[in-house]
Structure formats: C-alpha cells, structure tokens
Design a protein that fits this description.
The protein is mainly α. Helix content is 82%, strand content 0%.
Length: 82
Amino acid sequence: MEITGLVSALVTGLVVGALGRLVVPGRQPLGCLFTILLGIVGAVLGKVAGDALDVGPLLVFVFQVLAAAVLVALVALPQRRR
C-alpha cells in the first residue's frame, strides 16, 4: 500500500468513525485512535455491503457510517453498564 492510500484510509476512517460516534446517543469513552480504527473497519464493512447490494456511492457512505455506528455502540455497551 502506498503512502497516499494509507493517508486516505486514515482520513476516511476518521470521518466515518466521527460520524458513527455522532449517530450513537450518549457518551462513548473511546479515544481518537480507537475511533479511527472503528471508522476504518466500518468503512470496509459498509463498502463490502454496498458493493454486494450494488448501490450508488452515497448509499455506500451511509452504510459505512451505519456500520461504524454499530461498532461504536457494541464497543461502548460493556462500558456503559459499569
């Protein structure tokens, strides 16, 4: 992977992760790097789902944000119960 691809993945992960955290109500005790990681995973999962359903780029972005939101909610769930 080239450096531009790595930077692009990090920026996409940051945006998708931040939007995913905004979608989930309440406070999530996640750091910035963990948010980026969840955003990257959510972006990949949303891209795979969008490609499988053969939808347009806007809907792929929505899938990416929703996937990141689900990941944020799953990660923050055990910490909310404390």
